[in-house]
Amino acid sequence: MTLNLDPCKHYLAKVVSETLKSIDSENLLQIDAASVYSMLEKPPEDNMGDFALPCFRFAKALKLPPPKISAILAEALAKDSSGWISKSVTINAFCNVYVNQNRLASSIIPEVLSGAAFTFPIAAEKSLQRVRSEEHTSELQSRVDISYAVFC
């Protein structure tokens, strides 16, 4: 079971991966929604959208220039009727997406108010646990000794 911490980003990744697969006639591009999810990034400026997807990685397999791929993705996202996307544009070789803030809020606020946003399935909790190495543990212990010596 995967955690759905950002439902809009998950949805975008799904739509983008499906669109890329539809234009990959030779099936050379091995891409799934999880890969696209990890590639979605925050644009450098707020006026450039909520998410940006660099399209350089897809160019070789699709045999298209990155700006053309970005334009195809932006067009597909603009036609989307889910309500998640308010606008999608091409900026050079990036497909930039503007999220419908009302849809995002209506999805997230009830989860926050009910507390569901703060609970995780047990299987997910186990995968999120961190393991400390001996080296890291001893480093923490030495810091405790130093701070204890300072206070005494």
Draw up the topology in text.
Elements: H1 7-23, H2 33-39, E1 51-54, H3 56-62, H4 66-78, E2 85-91, E3 94-99, H5 101-114, H6 122-128, H7 134-151
Antiparallel strand pairs: 1-3, 2-3
Task: Describe the protein.
This protein has helices spanning 7-23, 33-39, 56-62, 66-78, 101-114, 122-128, 134-151; strands spanning 51-54, 85-91, 94-99. With 152 residues, it is mainly alpha-helical. The chain has a three-stranded antiparallel beta sheet with strand order 1-3-2. A hairpin with a 2-residue loop joins strand 2 (85-91) and strand 3 (94-99). Helix 1 packs across helix 2 (33-39). It is globular and about 50 Å long. The termini are far apart. Mean pLDDT is 80; it is low at 123-129.
Keywords:
single chain, 152 residues, mainly alpha, 3-stranded antiparallel β-sheet, 3 strands
Major sheet details? 3 strands, antiparallel
End-to-end Cα distance, whole Å, is: 50 Å
- The number of distinct β-strands equals 3
Give helix % range.
40-55%
Number of H/I helices: 7
H/E series, N to C?
HHEHHEEHHH
Specify Rg, calculated over alpha carbons: 21 Å
Low-confidence stretches are 123-129
